[in-house]
Specification:
Helix content is 36%, strand content 15%. Strand 1, helix 4 and strand 2 form a beta-alpha-beta unit. By secondary structure, it is α/β, with parallel strands linked by helices. The N and C termini lie far apart (38 Å). The chain has a single domain, classed as Rossmann fold (3-Layer(aba) Sandwich). It has a seven-stranded mixed β-sheet, covered by helices on one side. It comes from Actinomadura harenae. GO terms for molecular function: methyltransferase activity. Keywords: Methyltransferase, Transferase. This is SAM-dependent methyltransferase.
């Protein structure tokens, strides 16, 4: 479970782009290769992180007090449990990620917190993820927000991402919510697509840019909360921002 210093980790590259400190030389080199082609590529992770915070605050305000954050990445200053508890101090959060670095950091961060847990599991194996004893922290009879934020673009078409989403939602209670953000190929230049491909070609999980229609299909036809599937910075923002050329689309759907 030791991090591989020869291969870039999506979580550590994301950490570098967010201005964190938990990354290696190989991750910095991978991120800088993208930044060389698209200097504003740092903005996309930041806007995605802000989207996550706004969504969690909104759902906590609706009374949701359980969150399953899959593909959570490395800890930052505004983790889901911090945000949710700013609205509801009793909120419970289970994080899940398959990255060994995330496991190490999460164990240190969450130690002593009896309302958070971490599962070392892969979104591509929902049965194993959901069977982990840590999930007992979440009451299956109460609504849960299932967060798949900036993770499904690391799932190949061959792994059937839509089926994985449905498997994760199969046992959640009525009143739950599905949250997805995903990198899109809209307005992405061939040079940037090539840089992204090269950056993640040696990573454990390559990044897959998808068109809007395929991202919307991940919600399984469920109606989306307003404003629908939009650039993450346009989901109920406090301020309007100019579009980034490396775009993520995000949305929230109730789960009946």
């Amino acid at each position: 479970m030791t991090p591989d210093p020869a291969r870039p980790s999506p979580a550590r590259v994301y950490d570098y782009l967010l201005g964190g400190h938990d990354h290696l030389d190989v991750d910095r080199a991978a991120a800088e290769a993208v930044l060389k082609v698209e200097p504003d590529a740092r903005e996309s992770p930041r806007r995605n992180r802000d989207f996550l915070g706004r969504v969690v605050r909104h759902l906590a305000g609706l009374g949701v007090d359980q969150f399953l954050d899959i593909g959570s990445g490395l800890p930052t200053a505004e983790n889901v449990h911090h945000v949710a508890r700013s609205v509801n101090p009793g909120a419970r959060v289970v994080y899940a990620d398959n990255d060994a670095t995330v496991l190490e950091q999460a164990n240190a961060l969450l130690s002593g917190d009896d309302r958070t847990a971490f599962v070392h599991a892969d979104v591509r194996d929902p049965a194993a993820l959901l069977a982990d004893p840590a999930l007992a922290m979440l009451d299956p009879g109460r609504p849960t927000a299932v967060l798949l934020v900036a993770v499904l673009h690391f799932v190949a078409d061959a792994d059937r991402p839509s089926d994985l989403v449905e498997a994760l939602l199969a046992s959640v209670a009525p009143g739950s919510y599905l949250v997805i953000s995903h990198v899109t190929d809209e307005s992405t230049t061939p040079e940037l697509r090539a840089a992204i491909h090269d950056t993640y070609a040696n990573a454990p999980a390559p990044l897959h840019l998808r068109p809007r229609a395929e991202i919307e299909a991940l919600f399984g036809g469920r109606p989306l909360l307003a404003p629908g599937l939009v650039d993450v910075q346009d989901w109920r923002p406090a301020e309007r921002l100019a579009p980034s050329r490396l775009r993520l689309l995000g949305a929230v759907a109730p789960v009946a």
